[in-house]
Amino acid sequence: MKSSTFTRASLSSILQPAFSPRPISGRPITCSAVAPKPQTPLHLRPPSFRATLSELQKWHIWAKNKASSVGSTFLDLDNGPESTLLHRELNWLVEDALEQPALLSRNNYDDATPVSVRARLDDLYDLWKQRIDERRPFQYVVGCEHWRDLVLSVEEGVLIPRPETEMILDLVEESVTQNAGLKNGLWADLGTGSGALAIGVARVIGSGRGRVVASDLSPIAVAVASYNVRRYNLQERVDVRLGSWFEPLNDVNEELSGLVSNPPYIPTENIEGLQAEVCKHEPRLALDGGENGMSDLIHLCNGAASMLRPGGFFAFETNGEVQSELLVDYMDSKVKGSFFDVNIASDFAGIRRFVTGYRA
Amino acid sequence: MSGANQMANSIVRSFLRFPSYSICSFTKPASACSRWYRNNNYRTYTSFRLVEKAYKRGFSGGVINVEVFSANYSCASSSSNSNSNTCETVGGKEYLSMTDDKLMSQCEMDTYKVSGPGGQHRNKRESAVRLKHLPTGITAQASEDRSQHRNRAAALARLRTFLALKVRNSVDLDNYVPPPELVQILPAKSTIRGSEKGSQIGPNNPKFALGMQALIDLIFAVEGSVADAAKKLGLSTGALSRLILSDDSLRMAVNEYRAAKGVKPLK
After folding, report:
1. What is the pTM of this model?
2. What are the residue boundaries of the Prokaryotic-type class I peptide chain release factors domain, all occurrences included (chain B) (predicted)?
3. Cβ pair A146:B126 closer than 8 A
4. How many Å apart are CA A114 and CA B63, to the nearest integer?
């Protein structure tokens, strides 16, 4: 029974991240002796609990009312979720928690039929309270995020992959279509978080000779990314390493064929104003990009100029618009001649978000 | 040539006289989605053009063509003699025969965008996708899935159904031979169905849309008469009625057209 309870990182460890601010270079990394054990997402837990249909329906009605009571409060407060979105999230919670989600829509309120659930009924109440009262992100509540065609495990301490970032894989796909040789080289995803990009890139470059190395400064991220890599049976092709940016690649002799990253890019002063789900619960380490948000992007850009092989491809996500332009300006001036075909690509919402190019 | 039935090579007939967003509301989840879009006033919509690259590759039905076409859109439904060159030269059947990539290249994709910079700033899981097929102006959307990627695939499948329902191909009634994609959706007892045609394709098969489109083309050509259409297909009137009633969107399309012609609906 004990294993079924939802362990979570204590709030204080979220508000005061273990690593802050992120070292730009050189700071030695202390490996903790015991690697953190990643949590199993709700939908992958065994349906070993029983509740009656009427008990679950009572919970469901309570949860719906709780979602409705939010109205546009969060939206007005900090651009948070509205009731409509919370209702949709509740449906997804039901999908993940119940073995047969369709049972809930039966209209028989005194039904004593036992239903198989992946969490205790008490846990379901707690989880939804956390979602609404504490603004705990839905993805942490269910322990996963649906991203592109993947379902990735996530938990406190790991950035929840964003839909915008899915597009980096389209950009990678385009680059390897134009230059098939890139598929057989070594790729890197730096600051991998949940491992989303590393796994995505490994699937795009296919099962040839190509490999991916992923790095992250956070031991929790490394543990979760490794878990996700194993879930997609890519452990032979994706190597997840602990450390800051390029540092874990020091012993890699091969030049990189490709480099992708979604580094922290939010200017420090903007962090406090973000919606509660993000600023109170997601790791600051993965969000805070320093004074103007560009610190890590510049570091990556310098690294790309030395680590990529000639013709090697890079794609970085930025805060959009001005940051993309500043990064391109930096490439044109400070590391002039290092890159060619430097481009800014827009995300699905039309924001100029990605900077791509090739090593000269 | 029985002139009255001769339409322009392909004309979008707005016989389903809904505003464009409600054509999406024939399934429950999508209707929730369109309500959600409307609540947000469309004001924070921005578009992402997947079409640009397609134009570079030489796709001819560009934005200008679409504007011309939009101007003809309403006249096309009131008179069937808009045989002008400004109308689309690509037939409805060709849209449906396109690969997903090709069809997608003719679409503009909208995703709902909150105010602010997006990316790491927000956590809203707005994964809904709305596709607008530029040559015809037909839209489809999907929001049921948590992943934008899969919603895009669902919206594209839905778009194929809408194209089948709304884009008409011309039919030569005098020399009518049912196209193979229509024969595939007919029940085995059809006398024009050879034994080598394989088993009947149902609505869940992706190829059903093409057959459905050809069937509606024929129904339009015979002005909504199921009995006349059945004769052309070697079926009894009852058997064709059952086929039409077996799929909700097909039934609605046929009944809308019959209502416009003053014929009572199939039940």
Report:
1. 0.69
2. 105-164
3. no
4. 57
Look-up: residue for tokens 């407060």? A77
Among B40, B104, B120, the residue to mutate for chain A (most A Cβ within 10 A): B120
> Of A96, A118, A153, which closes a domain?
A153
Option in B118, B146, B150 nearest A164 (CB): B118
Q: Picking from A262-276, B2-16, B51-65, which range would have the lowest pLDDT averaged per residue? A: B51-65
Same domain membership, residue A188 and residue A131 = no
- For residue A165, give how far its alpha carbon lies from the nearest alpha carbon of chain B (Å): 8
B contact set with A (CB within 8 A)? 36, 39, 46-48, 109, 111, 113-127, 143, 145-150
SS3 state at B112: strand
- Inter-chain contact B118–A81, Cβ cutoff 8 Å? no
> Which of A158, A202, A196 has its CA nearest to residue A183?
A202
d(CA A201, CA A259): 10
Segment A138-183, tens digit of pLDDT: 999 999 999 988 999 999 999 999 988 999 999 999 999 999 999 9
Does A138 sit within 8 Å of B120, measured CB to CB?
no
Give the Cα separation of B99 and B79 in Å (integer). Answer: 32
Phi first, then psi: give them for residue A90, nearest 5 degrees.
-60, -40
Phi, psi angles (nearest 5°) of residue A46: -70, 145
Whose CA is closest to A73, among A132, A137, A11? A132
Domain over B92-166 is classified CATH 3.30.160.20: yes
* Residues of chain B contacting A146 with CB distance shorter than 8 Å: 127, 145-147, 150
Q: Which residue of B has its CA nearest to A91?
A: B144
- Based on the domain organization, do A288 and A142 belong to the same domain? no
Q: So what's the ipTM on this one?
A: 0.78
Looking at residue B40, its pLDDT comes to: 31
* Chain B touched by A152 (CB under 8 Å): no
Q: A290 and A269 in one domain?
A: yes
The CA distance from B49 to the nearest CA of chain A, in Å, is 8
Domain segments of chain B as ranges: 92-166, 180-261
CA dist A161 and A54 (Å) reads 36
Structure tokens of B114? 């909150």
Where does a domain end: A153, A186, A215? A153
Instruction: Name every chain B residue with its beta carbon within 8 A of the beta carbon of A138.
Output: 123, 125
Assess if residue A75 is contained within a domain: yes
- Tell me, yes or no, whether A323 lies in a domain: yes
The span from the CA of B182 to the CA of A99, in Å, is 40
- Bridge partners (DSSP) of residue A357 are A314
> For the segment B81-111, what is each residue's pLDDT rounded down to a tens digit?
333 333 344 567 788 888 888 898 888 887 6
Residues of chain A with pLDDT under 70: 1-34, 107-110
Which chain B residues have a beta carbon less than 8 Å from that of A287?
A: 120
- Which of A166, A274, A278 lies at the smallest CB-CB distance from B148? A166
CATH number at A303 reads 3.40.50.150
| A84 Cβ under 8 Å from any chain B Cβ | yes
